[in-house]
Each structure stands twice: as C-alpha cells, then as structure tokens.
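Researcher: Following up on the earlier apo prediction. This time include the ligand. It's magnesium ion, with the SMILES given after the sequence.
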Amino acid sequence: MKDARTAGDAAPLELRIDAKSYVSADGKRVEVVRGLELRLEAGSFGALIGPSGCGKTTILRIAAGLDADFRGQILTPGAGRLGMVFQEPRLLPWRTVEDNVRLALPVDRSGVDLADLFDTLGLGSHLAQYPGELSLGLARRAAIARAFAIQPDFLLLDEPFVSLDEAVAARLRDELMALTTRTKVTTLLVTHHLEEAVQLADRLFFLSDRPTHVIFEKALSLPRGTRSKEDIASISEEMRSLVAQAVTGAGPR
Ligand SMILES: Nc1ncnc2c1ncn2[C@@H]1O[C@H](COP(=O)(O)OP(=O)(O)OP(=O)(O)O)[C@@H](O)[C@H]1O
Ligand SMILES: [Mg+2]
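Model: Understood. Below is the ligand-bound prediction.
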C-alpha cells in the first residue's frame, strides 16, 4: 500500500515491507524482502548497502511506487516529483541525449536552460548523439541528468556511478552532494561502495542477504560535505567492524 502525502509536508520517507516475493519462471516462490523497516527524515540522504542480489532494486522499485505487489506500507515524502536513476540507464534509443533529458520535464519547464547541468555532467558535446552511440559512462551521465533536470522532491538512485571510471565517479559524487545539499531533496541511494555511502549519506542502512532486512543502521555524526578523505576512510573502517559485530550478534542491535 502506498500513501503519497501532500506536497509541502516535509514528511519523512517511511518504508515498511513485511514481505515481498517473486514467482520465478519455473514456478518457485522466492522471498526477497522480509521485515524491512526504514525511516528517513525529510531532506536527508540515506544509503542502502547490501550484498549482490539481496533485493536492493526491489526495495527502490517499491519506494518509487513501481511495484505494488508487496505486503507493508510506504509513506513517501510528498506528492512532489520523483527523480529516479535506474541501475541501467534506460534511455529512449530513438531520442537524442538532450531529448531524453527534456522529455522528463514538465511542460512549463520544457524550454529551461540546462546548460549548467549538461556541463557539470560533461554532456555538452554529446547532446545530439543517440544512446546507441554512447559509452555506458555517458549513458549513465545522461540518466543522471534526466533525474536532476526535473528538480525532484524525492530522489532514488540505484548504483548510479557503477562502472564509471573513478575520476568521473568522484566528480559526479561531488555534483550529487552539491545538488542534494542545495535542494534538500530526500534521497535514497543504493550502492555497493561503502566509501561512497559514507561520503554522501546522513544515514546508512546495511541490508542482510535474502530475504533482506536492515541488519544495522547508523546516522553519521560528522555533517555530510565536511568529511575529509581521512574521515571517510576511518568511518568506513568503523562501519565494517560494526556491521561484522551486528552480523555475529555481538553488535549494537
Ligand atoms: N521480476 C522478477 N521476477 C523474479 N525474480 C526476480 C525479479 N526481479 C528480481 N528478482 C529476484 O529477486 C532477487 C533480488 O533482486 P534485486 O534486483 O532486487 O537485487 P539487487 O540487490 O538489486 O541485486 P544487484 O546487487 O545485482 O543489483 C534476485 O534473486 C532476483 O533474481
Ligand atoms: Mg540491483
């Protein structure tokens, strides 16, 4: 059940997925999520970190309202615009990069100047190209531009920087940091990359294997945007040991 609150509520994101399963092609039922609870304050940035195949994309699709076939309840931050960056770039192959981004815009903003955004993402010289002509890295940047262009109130990102070279990924992380700090958009990011999560997020949610749930959750006390490389490395080390303790039952939860 999904209940989108009215705009301007500044309400938190609340996900409660009691159970979510799929029936696979051979008819077997696969339980993907069980007993997952997650709350994210309005305007804050959460990161979901979990093992491959545990159900992260499934959780984001439910949060986005794309999958209503689950038991539980979702309260989203408002009736505002949702920006979503899928794990695969999902661009329309018959549209140029620029058209792919502009198609997401509401009619009253369709002619808006996106030069800064394109420039930031290094897309300026690729606007007239079609997705089939792009490297995966460029396609990812176009997908990120599309999500940012609509000025979302609620942003969901599914491993947006995976398979980019580290220099580009680092630049895009900085851009995401700047955007989310400026707009205070409530954001949930899925990543495998703990350091990335520690750099970007206010709150980390560590997920178990399937059926997945939150095994450990941590609000980072040092404000985002003020963490040095050394801070990020040491917080990540601390998180690894706290998660290991949580898994073996000796941890804080
Ligand atoms: N439509 C579907 N039908 C059947 N099974 C599915 C479907 N979508 C996902 N699954 C299964 O559910 C499980 C979780 O998938 P999901 O894509 O949510 O995991 P993930 O954590 O995002 O994985 P990854 O780390 O590879 O991105 C996997 O075992 C997957 O095979
Ligand atoms: Mg996934």
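Model: The chain has seven helices and ten strands.
Researcher: Noted. I'll compare it with the apo version next.
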